[in-house]
């Protein structure tokens, strides 16, 4: 498998400072903290010095990056081909004259949508609504579900009654109908008010924020390795499906749609089988409930398919697929039948950004031209095999190895151990090695770029082996 060539990418991480974060980062954060909360900041990055799979901090330390701006960098820092494109007149004019795409689209916007987003549209979906981020993408999908269900309820009529128009202005029925969205335990779908009602990953995301009283169904808690726990996992998925069916039949308000991640990223990298998702689709179809697949984190080639739900081999596509992160643009795929029945309803000022469309156009071309989905599969197989070896020697530090492609994770025995491993990977003695992050309660997640090759994977494995040996 030919790896993605990146001129001037370093061969390995380098170390400058003896502490982490370094002196310059600490000083910069003192200034920043006076005007913005910095409690979640790890270090201050040097954008000019970051390149390919390596992120550089302002102290001069260069780390192999398998966190990648929370899974959102696709083809490397300072990709030279993308840099050249960004200097073009088209990019500059779009940057300084950002258009309101829903009212005044650019002349090339249709071509951009076709060559960027629709070129890789999930099978069976032919429409795309562009947005800014993952949360707004899911919010747009929620609104589309409610409007579509109401349209069906009116027998296809686009006309509203006076009572509907009046009551919606005071948030009352029938203009503000009692629909809901079902999500799953440990799910994460965003931090805006609507998506928080479907987010179930950590209390800190939700506490103090009013939420809709929407249902939550159990998501399978599988045992790993999957191939050694087949019967247990089948029974666990069956239990969850039975409870899911019970909830949709008995919930106090009608369920317009469900939203589900192919792999629960923020909630702890939780997996389920293709059969589980196939059953969800069957049940939703039979119950006239729409299905939203949240591919914000799993989408764009990282699992060895362009969209993770392609692994399910559904006979009927989801009604909506949301995306963001590695596509560098948010958005929603759907079909013409679920387009909003009136203008200005699913709408906002910018409805995305031409520059992000151009960037997505480049990313899609790089993936397809360089077969980066296959690279993710090849490197993922190597990573999983090596992580299993480490797990056999250090089961309290590395356990429950799982993943598809390079979308991978493992567990530590508890939160404190997980956090210490992440810290040590950044500062292993005096050798800063790898920038990585956690998910869920005790999971370490790997979210490398699509240009992450075997040589990078070997550096990661060597660093983790050293950390475990000296833990």
Task: Sum this structure up briefly.
The protein has 15 helices and 14 strands. With 471 residues, the chain is of the alpha/beta class. The strands form 3 sheets. It has a 7-stranded mixed β-sheet, with helices on both faces. Strands 10-11-14-13 form a 4-stranded antiparallel β-sheet, with helices on one face. Strands 1-2-12 form a 3-stranded mixed β-sheet.
Summarize this structure as a short list of keywords or feature phrases.
471 residues, alpha/beta, Aspartate Aminotransferase, domain 1, Aspartate Aminotransferase, domain 2, 15 helices, globular
- Beta-strand proportion: 5-15%
Number of discrete domains: 2
Chain oligomer state: single chain
What is the mean pLDDT? 96
State the shape. Answer: globular
CATH-level-4 superfamily name of the largest domain:
Type I PLP-dependent aspartate aminotransferase-like (Major domain)
What class, by secondary structure content? alpha/beta
Fraction of residues in helix: 25-40%
What's the arrangement of strands in the largest beta sheet?
3-9-8-7-6-4-5
Number of helices: 15
In the CATH scheme, what's the topology name of the largest domain? Aspartate Aminotransferase, domain 2
EC number: 2.6.1.19
Enzyme class: transferase
Cofactor: pyridoxal 5'-phosphate
GO molecular function: 4-aminobutyrate:2-oxoglutarate transaminase activity; pyridoxal phosphate binding
Provide structural commentary.
Belongs to the class-III pyridoxal-phosphate-dependent aminotransferase family. It catalyses: 4-aminobutanoate + 2-oxoglutarate = succinate semialdehyde + L-glutamate. Its EC number is 2.6.1.19. Its cofactor is pyridoxal 5'-phosphate. This is 4-aminobutyrate aminotransferase. The protein has 471 residues and is an alpha/beta fold. It folds into 2 domains: 23-79 and 373-469, Alpha-Beta Complex (Aspartate Aminotransferase, domain 1); 99-352, Aspartate Aminotransferase, domain 2 (3-Layer(aba) Sandwich). It contains 15 helices and 14 strands. It has helices spanning 23-33, 68-71, 80-86, 89-96, 109-117, 134-153, 162-167, 193-196, 203-206, 230-250, 274-286, 354-369, 372-393, 415-426, 454-469, and strands at 54-56, 62-65, 127-131, 180-184, 216-217, 255-260, 290-294, 320-323, 330-334, 399-404, 407-411, 434-435, 437-439, 443-446. It has a 7-stranded mixed beta sheet, with helices on both faces. It has a 4-stranded antiparallel beta sheet with strand order 10-11-14-13, with helices on one face. A hairpin with a 3-residue loop joins strand 13 and strand 14. Helix 5 runs parallel beside helix 12 and helix 13 packs parallel to helix 15 (454-469). The longest helix has 22 residues, at 372-393. The protein is globular and about 70 Å long. The relative contact order is 0.15. The model has no long low-confidence stretch (mean pLDDT 96).
């Amino acid at each position: 498998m030919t790896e993605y060539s990146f001129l001037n990418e370093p061969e390995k991480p380098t170390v400058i400072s003896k502490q982490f974060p370094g002196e310059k980062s600490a000083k910069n954060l003192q200034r920043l903290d006076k005007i913005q909360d910095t409690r979640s900041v790890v270090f201050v990055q040097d954008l000019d010095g970051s390149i390919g799979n390596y992120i550089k901090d302002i102290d001069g330390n260069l780390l192999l990056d398998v966190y990648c701006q929370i899974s959102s960098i696709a083809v490397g820092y300072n990709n030279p081909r993308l840099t050249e494109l960004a200097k073009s007149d088209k990019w500059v004019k779009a940057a300084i004259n950002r258009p309101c795409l829903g009212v005044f689209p650019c002349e090339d916007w249709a071509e951009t949508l076709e060559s960027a987003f629709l070129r890789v549209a999930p099978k069976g979906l032919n429409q795309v609504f562009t947005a800014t981020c993952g949360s707004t993408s899911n919010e747009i999908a929620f609104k589309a579900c409610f409007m579509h269900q109401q349209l069906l309820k009116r027998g296809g009529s686009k006309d509203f009654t006076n009572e509907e128009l009046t009551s919606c202005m005071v948030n009352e029925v029938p203009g503000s109908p009692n629909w809901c969205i079902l999500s799953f335990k440990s799910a994460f779908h965003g931090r805006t008010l609507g998506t928080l009602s479907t987010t179930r990953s950590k209390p800190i995301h939700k506490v103090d924020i009013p939420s809709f009283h929407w249902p939550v169904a159990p998501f399978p808690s599988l045992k790993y390795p999957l191939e050694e726990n087949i019967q247990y996992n089948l029974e666990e998925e069956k239990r969850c499906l039975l409870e899911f069916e019970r909830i949709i039949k008995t919930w106090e308000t009608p369920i317009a749609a469900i939203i589900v991640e192919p792999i629960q990223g923020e909630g702890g990298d939780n997996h389920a089988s293709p059969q589980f998702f196939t059953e969800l689709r069957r049940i939703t179809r039979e119950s006239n409930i729409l299905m939203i697949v949240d591919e914000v984190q799993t989408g764009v080639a990282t699992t060895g398919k362009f969209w993770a739900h392609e692994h399910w081999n559904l006979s009927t596509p989801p009604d909506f697929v949301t995306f963001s992160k590695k596509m560098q643009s948010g958005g929603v795929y759907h079909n013409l039948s679920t387009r909003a029945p009136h203008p200005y309803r699913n709408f906002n000022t910018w409805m995305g950004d031409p520059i992000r469309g151009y960037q997505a156009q480049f990313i899609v071309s790089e993936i397809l031209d360089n077969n980066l989905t296959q690279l993710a599969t090849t490197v993922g197989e190597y990573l999983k095999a090596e992580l299993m070896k480490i797990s056999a020697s250090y089961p309290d530090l590395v356990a429950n190895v799982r993943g598809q492609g390079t979308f991978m994770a493992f567990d530590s025995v508890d939160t404190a151990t997980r956090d210490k491993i992440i810290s040590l990977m950044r500062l292993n003695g005096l050798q800063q090695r790898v920038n990585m992050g956690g998910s869920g309660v005790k999971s370490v997640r790997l979210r490398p770029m699509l240009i992450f090759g075997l040589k990078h994977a070997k550096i990661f494995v060597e660093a983790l082996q050293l950390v475990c040996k000296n833990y």
